[in-house]
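Why do we care about 3D structure at all? Because function follows from shape, and shape follows, mostly, from sequence. That is the central idea of this module. The next example makes it concrete: a single protein chain, its amino acid sequence, and then its structure expressed as tokens.
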Amino acid sequence: GIMTIMGDFLGMYAIGSGATWYEGTDYTNPAHRKNMLKKIKEMVLEFRGEPFVLLWLLGNENNYGVANNANKKPEEYYLFADQAAKLIKKLDPEARPVAIGNGDLLFLDIYGKKTKYIDILGANAYRGDKGCGYSFWQDVKDYTGRPTMITEYGCPSYSERMPSGQAELAQAEYLKGAWEDIKTNSAAGPGVGNCIGAIVFEWLDEWWKSYDPFVHNVQRNWAGPFPDGWMYEEWLGIMSQGDGTQSPFLRVPKKSYFMFKSTWKK
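And the structure:
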């Protein structure tokens, strides 16, 4: 019963475009566009016959412009993303929906105007322990009229200000609040009604993110609405690897795991 969302980076981090990191993907460059469409075609042809594919997902916060120019040329980026979605629909006989992985709602108005083949707005959104809030869902409805999903939401289980058990509890409470907002704004809820689901970020702590995979790093990565005001990207899992001595095989459920186990049974 487990299904998978199949995705392509669509030039994020210069992946698939043929560009170097420092050059970055250029969404007006014919060669880069050709390379990316070729990769998408290969993906769809390889996996379109698999029953476990739920939908196709394009990009990963490309609108933030990391090793690409989507933040400088958003109209060109969204037009190209829509071209990619059109290609997928042509190749996929199952007619599975196509989503885009946006960084929050940046360039939402341009996305709404420039795309017609992308079915779902996916947003990586970290807005706090009450979720995204009414205005988020209403803005998507007003500008696009299409369903949306949260393609990333999460909270670290580490805090400089708390012992580990308390920090785990804070993570669980944050994720529960975010989930309640998602449920409220789904079709069955009393909110805006355009949310079709969400992806918890993430299953397992990623020790490699601060470049030393043998150390569970506690450096601050960026400021945000988290228990002590900082994101610790190596601590986002609802599963840990313990002290790492059995890495990468050990899985230790955190309090947030049991919170979801309980919540999702209701």
